[in-house]
Amino acid sequence: MFTRLHSPVRKNNLTLAAALALFVCLSGMFNVCAQEKSKVDAKPAKYVFLMIGDGMGVNQRLAAGKCLPEKGAKLFMDSFPYSGLTKTNSTVDVTDSAAAGTALACGVKTRNGVLGLDKDGKRVESIAELLKKKGMKIGIMTNTPINHATPAAFFAHSAGRGSYSEISTFVPEAGFELFVGDGFLINKDDKKPDDMLKDKGYMLLNNAGEFRKLQKGAGKVVFTYRITSAPISADPKKITLAECLAKATELLDNDNGFFIMMEGGMVDWACHANDLYSSVQETLAFDDAIKAAHDFYLKHPSETLIVVTADHETGGLGVDSSSRPELFMSQKFAKSEIINRVNACKKEKASFEEVLKVVQESFGMKELSDAETKAIKDAYDALMETSPSDTRAEEIKKMYGTKNPVVEACSKILCTKAGITWSTGEHTSSKVKTTAIGSGAELFNGEMDNTGIPARIKKAMSIE
Ligand SMILES: [Zn+2]
After folding, report:
1. How far is the CA of 166 from the centre of ligand 1 (A)?
2. Span 253-270, pLDDT tens digits
3. C-alpha span between 448 and 23 (Å, rounded)
4. In sequence order, what E strands does 315-446 have?
5. How far is the CA of 272 from the centre of ligand 1 (A)?
6. What's the 165 CA to ligand 1 centre distance in angstroms?
7. Is the pTM of this model over 0.90?
8. Please, what are the domains in the chain?
9. Tens digit of pLDDT for each residue in 374-425?
10. How many A from CA of 180 to the centre of ligand 1?
């Protein structure tokens, strides 16, 4: 009778259940093994890249991704395994780059315009300064001036981001191994920090060829050069953010590790001008630099951390799934350059047909409807009437403000065609996207405050 209970069906069920149980058990064990293996493999981060796209909000990333030539391709920075949204407010809802930089560098909220001081004016240490004390090499890199708000938050302590001369004196004081950027901003009648830098043993370079030739052991370097976001002004003599980053990893690599902060600073400038073409180009150039950081990560995957974030969003850019930002890719120049061209036409009192030709070529607008041509003609009339005294109708002034009316009219036509909108020429309170890969990257998953970023980097490095 007993054996009858073991009917083939029953037996099969039992076997299946046992196999299933064994599978669950084994896969559980494998999971534990995998987790423990990754714990053993993952060492504290020793090589850290903090990549900050100034003004690079969620939609700036989305728009740039949609402009990649390969359909459905992702920005490299959006392929990282961990991501979250980051709050950007300063002591007020909408931050500026000084307060946001201070949050990302020093982990404290402060007032807009303030660098490296808390809201009560007390000096706070940046993560770069802390890591320098711990014997790591430090690189601060940007494509804006070196003493502009975002990079300055990592080495300066000043109540006013516009005190450029004072802020530049913090560069030699910081003693970091590498500074790269578009020169120094200096207040009227003041001197550049060159002598102070030389006194502190810095090598000053302003030539891409010399920078390219530098080798490991070169000592402390300040490299000032106009860094290009490739296609805007393609020039082989110029140097890209990606090339600068690759060289920095070569120069700073050492047994104690390094911390590199690179800012893609021109996304913000493009978005203040509501210039989608330039925002996309700048974001793509910054993405290339992130690829260069990833090349280094591949050589040291268990000890490298790459964090990509932004200080705030600029422009209130609206993009949705039906938007076609790629239509802007037939634009030939940055909006600021097109404004220069149209202003030159105005100086020469060029005819409407001549101006129309210039803007159609510059914006890559092949065909225009009658209504679009009329809108540009109205803007042309407004442009030609603006000097010497502004006699334009109030409505026209309100519509075009102090911007170039012809360029704004063309820009508006392109935005409508592409289905994108701008809500402001200023910063917004939107959250930004943070993505990360490497040692401790899981700490950057989910929502966080901008002040939490340096704290998470320290945790990933096992530094309290
Ligand atoms: Zn800005």
Report:
1. 21
2. 999 999 999 999 999 999
3. 38
4. 427-428, 432-438
5. 7
6. 20
7. no
8. 47-320+431-460 (3.40.720.10), 325-418 (no CATH)
9. 999 999 999 988 655 556 566 555 545 457 999 999 999 999 999 999 999 9
10. 20
